[in-house]
Amino acid sequence: MMGMSRAGLAERWPLFAGAFVSVTLGVALVQSSLLLLISAATMDPPAGLSAAAGMEFSDNIAAVVSMLGIVLGIATFLAGFVISSTFAFTVAQRRRDLALLRLVGGSRGQLRRLLLGEALLLGGLGAAAGVPAGLGVMAAQEWLLRTLGFVPAGFHGQWREWILAVSFGAGIGLAVSGAAVAARRASRVRPLEALRDTGEAARVMTVARWIAALVFLGGALALVIIAPHGGVDGGAAMAMNVPLPAAIAAAALSPLIVPLVARLLPTGAGAAGLLARANLWDARRRSASIAAPVIVLIALIAGTAGAEATFTVSGIDQMRRQTHADFIVEAPGPIGARIAAVRGVATASTETSVPATIVTGHGEDQESDTATALVIDPPAYAKAHGTASALASLSGRSVAAGPGGGVPSSGSVRLKLPDTALVELPVAGGVPPTMSGGANLLLPPGIVSPALLADAPTQSFVSLAPGANADSVRSQLSRIGKVSDVDTWLRADASSRNSTSNKIMLVIMGLGGLYALIGVINSIVIGAAARRREFAEARVTGLTRTQVIRSALLESSAVTVAGLVLGGLAAAGAVIAAVASTSAVTGRPALSLPWPLIAAACAVALLVTAATSLITSWSATRRPPVTLLAARE
Amino acid sequence: MTRADPAVTLRGVTRVFGRGSAAVRAVDEVTLEFPRAGWTAVMGPSGSGKSTLLHCAAGLEGVDAGQVLIGDTDLTAAREHELTALRRTRIGFVFQSFNLIGSLTAAQNVALPLRLAGRRPRTPEVRETLAAVGLADRARHKPRELSGGQQQRVAIARAMVTRPEVLFADEPTGALDSSAARVVLDLMRRMADAGQSIVMVTHDPLAAAQADAVVFLRDGRVVDRLAGGSAREVADRLAGWEAAR
After folding, report:
1. ipTM of the complex
2. A7–chain B Cβ distance below 8 A for any pair
3. Residue in chain A lying closest to B118 (CA)
4. Sheet bearing B166-170, strands edge to edge
5. What would the pLDDT profile of A536-580 be if each residue is shown by its tens digit?
6. Is B198 left (phi over 0), alpha (psi -120 to 50) or beta?
7. A101 touches chain B (CB under 8 A)
8. A286: how many CB neighbours lie within 10 A of its CB?
């Protein structure tokens, strides 16, 4: 049987090359994301940092770690999805060969062992290539993280010996489990199917596929329904997770929907269009395999980016509604007294941001979380941010829960500031969490030492006295710090938030998106490899080579568009969840879609499928059709 | 077992495709014996159910009613793994499209059933089987490097390597030109003379005339038989049944 495996390998190399590439890149992506996550999580602050800078450093690292956690999650999801669907496709493409083996006396067990043995071999080889490739991917991801300013210049992912076990385990495990379902199905192929191309082979919507589709569709709907009840953080997390189950459900249903959607598209009159439409319907399995990675690609990019943009714009809206001030002054250190002394200033809420650590639990269970504390003047803060009643009792040594959430609004909190010992402080209320987040804790003046406040970043929200000359006040304030009017400040704040969220999207989606694209290319190459004969038949029927290539191009473009539509539907689920969450949290629904990004992703998917389809069908029709038809295997 | 025992026995075999008003009785209560060490051809107009009959007789297709026996083994009662074992040891197949595995050489294709049966094929065994079909010098060629007639002879060698009780052939000359068909038919004649039981479906009177007996099928039923007829007689009989439709 192994000899047969080897011979099969040589003959059907595009199939196996596709499977190999999917494992190699999947393993590389998972390995790199995991190593970077571990390296970031165990990173020590550089020596010689002040206590405050040290806390800020850990705060940044915590943010990077949670982002890399998402990167790892997406990488693992994509690897599992692309590898298992590629292996299943390679098995489906050889159905006739497998039936033939059954015909000459191969048992079900032998077929299963042959396919699983193949998956084991390819998974192992793919992982062996994926480990060094992972180092290349890690260099790329490191470069991205450094360039976008998420990690300090000296950050490097570190190699761990045990990663070998993880990489080989992941490569082999995903390959074998991807092939397992397909192998089980293929082993039940009836010998008679070797003589026909129809029958069971035409039935792609299997029971397992229906179950997967309904379970994941249910999961996605549940997330959409529950998200508005999840509060600020829960709602965002749930909305961002909708694309994963929604994409799986859409991919599982794709053999049913892709041909339907694709047939609605104009493929033009003429022989090429006719052939393309017929093939779309006839080769549902192939169409679905090409559409699946497209669905995942668009669902992830459009869904995650759309939800993210919606939350960002909702946060900005909410902040615009809650901010009651004429000017905002930004400067380091205690500027409150100087601002209050400016003639024409009615009130000023001066807020200084300091890093803090919140400690929960005792003894062995003790955990500390980095947080941001804002030193405020409670009455002025209440006036500038419209939170009157919430902060009424804030004075002395009591604190309040801030708009960033994460702190209960009653009881007490154990707090460590950079230059003080751990203290337990009563929590006297809090402001409701906002979409855009912010400080976790609000502190009255007096708790934080003047030394710590000396050059901490400070913002002051200034309201003018009635009849005051705005220009003159502004020019006086500009001697204290950078002055902006509220609109300019909100716009600057919004664009910085947008740019941060775009950078996060780039880190999370960049390489994952490329990998999904490679999955698309894989499917087209594998599909075309089995089509030489079909193309030859079309040519001897009278189609020119150009018509055959055009027909293949039309077909794959129609499938891609159908994949984009389905991916768009999955993404819409995430965006709907995001809109419902913003409405529940802020009272007003918000919606923002990053059209340039979505358009770019669609264009890239279309271009890549068109180019791959052109190249593969051109290469598959290079030999004169007669040479292929004369010798039937 | 003696020569008098039939190689294959069909008792009241019925196979229906479709349901309700669209149901077609492809094989309709056929009772038939294919003799041991004899070559029987099954003929009939297209759509007469001859291929379905062959598939049922070989255990490739289930039956809706009736019984199929190979020797004294009841195929209709056999489980999947028993059918697999049967295909490995007691049944051989040859088809119109040769169905060789394109990535394997002629010798590897021939050795495949032995490998699947868990045996290590001995080189002489495979070489002899290929020599018996006149292709000893083509052992290392891949199917695409062989002519249609040569491919069909490799397929016959593959079917014969396990020394099956019955060889089932579905239009074995259907894809061949007349001279290649002649070579294949002569080979099958020699096999039958040497004691091989062969059941062959064909629409070619020249091929059917090589067999010991011809069974005519129409609308899923056996309507006629002819033993030792010439190609001319077979053709006339077939034309009669086709006209009677």
Report:
1. 0.79
2. yes
3. A1
4. B91-95, B166-170, B197-201, B39-43, B213-218, B221-227
5. 878 877 788 888 898 889 888 999 999 999 999 999 999 999 999
6. beta
7. yes
8. 27
